[in-house]
Amino acid sequence: MRSATSAATRREFQLTDANIQNLQRAFQETFAAELGETGDYELVSEPGQDVLRISAVVNGIAPSAPADDGRARATGRTRIYTESAGSMTITFGFSDSENGQLLALVKDSRAGTPMWNVNNSVTNMSDVRFMFRRWARMLRARLDIAHGY
Predict the structure, then answer these.
(1) Which of 7, 22, 31, 103 is most deeply packed, by most CB within 10 A?
(2) Nearest CA among 132, 37, 63 for reference residue 92
(3) pLDDT at residue 12 in the model
(4) What pTM, to 2 d.p., does this model score?
(5) Which residues contact residue 141 at a Cβ distance below 8 angstroms, ignoring those fewer than 6 apart?
(6) How far is 30 from 137, CA to CA, in rounded Å?
(7) Residue-level pLDDT at 74
(8) Which of helix, strand or coil describes residue 29?
(9) From CA 9, how far away is CA 72, in angstroms rounded?
(10) How many angstroms separate the CA atoms of 105 and 57, rounded?
(11) 16: DSSP letter
(12) What is the C-alpha to C-alpha distance for residues 100 and 51, in angstroms, rounded to an integer?
């Protein structure tokens, strides 16, 4: 998804290719760290026996403030404070890595940290990682239950 409409700004928020790459990198790094933390799960890039393929699609991003790009915000020494950077909706697909059979599809929405903070590119990425961490920890907890850990 390349754009989302913010209730706070009522204008189109355009994701650049660099924004998309940063989101993808943050997602991969966060999930690798959270799933690999216990050493119980190995992340692989090839299909195999007993390998679960997890795919994720960000379906929506609703920022709480205009982009921190110099054009969308007022000039001068302006700071915008918001309660979280916004919210995100994501769909996870779980399938057999060898035959591609879809086993489960889960859609969930999350908001960033529930505390007021300066809204800028640094705090926004921190909130994005917070949301990714919550999803990764929920996934690891469900995988642990499935494995009897």
Answers:
(1) 31
(2) 132
(3) 61
(4) 0.79
(5) none
(6) 10
(7) 58
(8) helix
(9) 9
(10) 11
(11) P
(12) 11
Q: What are the backbone dihedrals phi and psi of residue 57, each rounded to the nearest 5 degrees, phi first?
A: -130, 125
| Dihedral over alpha carbons 123, 136, 57, 129 (to 10 degrees) | 10
Q: How far is CA 76 from the centre of its chain?
A: 31
Look at residue 124 and give its three-state secondary structure: helix
Give Rg (Cα) of the chain.
17
CA–CA gap between residue 136 and residue 140 (Å, rounded): 6
> 119 exposed, middle or buried (CB, 10 Å; 0-12, 13-18, 19+)?
buried
Question: Is residue 37 within 8 Å of 8, Cβ to Cβ?
Answer: no
Give Cα separations from 41 to 29, 36, 83, 127, 149 (angstroms).
15, 6, 34, 25, 12
| Average confidence (pLDDT) per 10 residues, the chain, 149 residues | 44 79 94 84 90 92 71 64 87 95 95 84 89 93 87
The neighbour count for residue 87, using CB atoms within 10 Å, is 19
